[in-house]
Specification:
With 206 residues, this protein is of the alpha/beta class. The protein has 9 helices and 6 strands; from the N terminus they run βααβαβααααβααββ. Helix 2 packs across helix 3.
């Protein structure tokens, strides 16, 4: 099975100051903090040291790119970036505290995570549909280009959560409550068409 499929490791970036403060980041370009750098270095040693990657890709946002670079450092590999791997664009809500968003929209964060595409568009937020369209396009191209090989991709929390929901790994109710930790990862197999979840780490269903 391994020879027919690309093994993709999807990794969430390390912690930023905005993560620590509970601020919505989206596509705001916030760098890793010291804790985030430490998390990436530890994950590189604990989870990825023995894996031979054919390529390492990352969102072009600083927090993801630095995470990928820290993982790639020991392997002496270059990191290729893409805007297709970015976090969801939260529009006017970026930089806002979760509690401020709840108050303004009169809904819980759990409800905010499950906005319909129609409501998201009205609020100026990138919809699940748009986000998955770009993300899956990138994943499918990688899966075809690196069939039978391992690829590391550093991306973002909302992207990973919606991806797992789309694959049926998370139900809609679980998707509202799940927490994806910094440096959580998902191992999936893909032939460029289908995706199969093989391993999940740091994705907590509450």
């Amino acid at each position: 099975m391994k020879n027919n499929y690309c093994q993709i490791y999807l990794v969430r970036h390390g912690e930023t100051d905005w993560n620590a403060k509970g601020l919505l980041q989206g596509q705001s370009d916030i760098p890793l903090n010291k804790e985030g750098e430490k998390q990436a270095i530890e994950a590189a040693k604990k989870h990825f040291k023995k894996i031979k990657f054919a390529a390492i890709f990352s969102s072009d946002l600083l927090r993801a790119k630095k995470t990928a670079e820290l993982i790639a450092l020991e392997k002496k590999m270059a990191v290729e970036t893409s805007t297709l791997l970015r976090e969801r664009d939260f529009g006017p809500f970026e930089g806002k505290h979760w509690q401020e968003v709840e108050k303004k929209l009169r809904m819980s964060i759990k409800e905010f995570r499950m906005l319909s595409d129609e409501v998201a568009k009205k609020l100026g937020i990138e919809s699940d549909e748009k986000m998955m369209e770009r993300f899956l396009r990138f994943l499918r191209e990688v899966a075809v280009a690196y069939r039978g090989k391992n690829v590391l991709i550093v991306t973002h929390g909302s992207v990973m959560r919606v991806f797992l929901t789309k694959l049926g790994y998370l139900s809609k109710e679980e998707s509202r409550q799940v927490f994806i930790k910094n440096l959580a990862f998902i191992k999936v197999l893909s032939d460029g068409v289908d995706f199969f979840v093989k391993e999940v780490f740091g994705v907590e269903k509450k």
